[in-house]
Amino acid sequence: MIRILVTTLFLIPLSLIAKEGPFIGNGVKVGEVDTQSAIVWVRLTQTPEANFDQLPIFTEGLTDTEKDAGTMPDDVFPGMEGETRVSYWPQEKRSETISTDWESVSRLSDYIFQFQLNNLESDTLYEYAVEARPVGSDGISATAKGQFLTAPRPDDAEAIRFIVTTCQAIRSIDSGREGHLTYEQMLEFQPNFLVHTGDIVYYDKAPLAKTIAQARAKWNLMFAYGHNQTFHQNVTSYFMKDDHDTLKNDCWPGQTYGDLTFAEGLKLFREQVPMGEHTYRTYRWGKDVQIWMTENRDFRSSNRMQDGPNKTILGATQKAWLKRTILESDATYKFVISPGPIVGPDKKGKADNHGNDVFKHEGQELRDFLSAQENTYVICGDRHWQYCSEDPKTGLVELGCGSVNDQHNFGGNPGKDEIYHRYFSGKGGFLGITVENGKAKAEWYGVNYRSDKPPVLHTEAL
């Protein structure tokens, strides 16, 4: 397995740059990576880092009163017009560097550009440098360096290690301007890639974001934090969305939150993370691993609709795609990664996912289908507790990754269910999956605030 060597954000000396910027204060994200392509995401900023001093409560912790009040300031990290390009090369092969054309960024897209890289080599660690400059200038104002790994070919029996996490917010920051400590400790796992199942930001939790400008500002701040930024700048990542980073809790198409519409929420998500044509997709990582990432917001019925064969979360087109591509796959292990539970059990009072009675018909359809496929597992986010459950009717196993840290464990949990749960914990952290020599295991990690190394809380052979 390729060992990932982490590099950090690199800014050239201030004496050599245009002091007015633009800078690359939100770092770089690399996503939608397969055997030969990737998307590199960059945002240009007015300053090298966010104005953390303007918002001390965001880096020192929110009081109980502040957790449900306040409005997100839309000037916490302003963007800036300018030009950007990316140069990339296989590790230790700088002579093979390829550089893109310079591209302009605009206020209309929050000063973001997404580069589509093609004709890459499979199973290769690429290094890159993203540069910024003022419009029309030859002088470089900032440079960010990082790396990403491409997928091995479907016939390559490579060992694969990947991470799944969910649910992070400004209110759960645990390391001041460094953000979430979990991201630093995830690097100890040496992942080939990460999947974030959604709730990356919370529009409807303090500070509240009810306009496009406020929603963008939440994304801008989340990826200004040091640990969060460094991780994504150096690890191949896939991003999914759920309710809180679409609009508001348990939302569906047609709803609004303040001045923010559901349609605007969909557009903002595709703007703020590397994203291709579809938000539901599948990626193959060698002979033994294939992942599916479902889209649970765009096509869903209202939660209030009476349950039956026409009520859906996935929509007919996506559901047909999911079944067809799983049946076509010859990967040793198949992981269906869902923003919300398919098995559960959920906590009382929830009415938003396939583990709830309000979507019982489609939930049962999916459990029946997935349980009939060999070595097929569900991995889900959304729930703020870690678990491994087995559906007592079909035997389908679901792995709940838990929230990003213990601070995010608000909202309560149902406690251990002896009928469903093989493992249950109220802890936060991340889920690590390792597939090697045709065998797979799942490991749940916590966050260790006294060490760089996260503790293994539980291991399950798959």
Walk me through what this model shows.
The chain is α+β, with helices and mostly antiparallel strands and 462 residues long. The chain has helices at 56-60, 181-186, 212-222, 226-234, 262-272, 316-328, 360-371; strands spanning 28-31, 38-43, 82-90, 98-99, 103-105, 112-117, 125-133, 142-149, 160-165, 193-196, 237-239, 256-257, 260-261, 281-285, 289-293, 333-338, 376-380, 386-390, 397-400, 421-425, 430-436, 439-445, 456-461. The chain folds into two domains: 14-45 and 80-149, Immunoglobulin-like, CATH 2.60.40; 160-461, Purple Acid Phosphatase, chain A, domain 2. The protein is built from seven helices and 23 strands. Strands 14-15-16-17-19-18-20 form a seven-stranded mixed β-sheet, with helices on one face. Strands 11-10-9-21-22-23 form a six-stranded mixed β-sheet, with no helix packed on it. Strands 3, 4, 5, 7 and 8 form a five-stranded antiparallel β-sheet that branches. The relative contact order is 0.13.
Task: Describe what is shown at a glance.
This protein is an alpha+beta fold and 462 residues long. It folds into 2 domains: 14-45 and 80-149, Purple acid phosphatase-like, N-terminal (Immunoglobulin-like, Sandwich); 160-461, Purple Acid Phosphatase, chain A, domain 2 (4-Layer Sandwich), CATH 3.60.21.70.
> Biggest sheet, in brief?
7 strands, mixed
When the domains are counted, the total is: 2
- For CATH, the homologous superfamily of the largest domain is named as Alkaline phosphatase D (PhoD)
Order of helices and strands: EEHEEEEEEEHEHHEEEHEEHEHEEEEEEE
How would you sum up the global shape? Answer: globular
Low-confidence stretches: 8-18
Provide the helix percentage.
10-25%
Average pLDDT confidence is 93
- Integer-rounded radius of gyration: 21 Å
Task: Specify the structural class.
Answer: alpha+beta
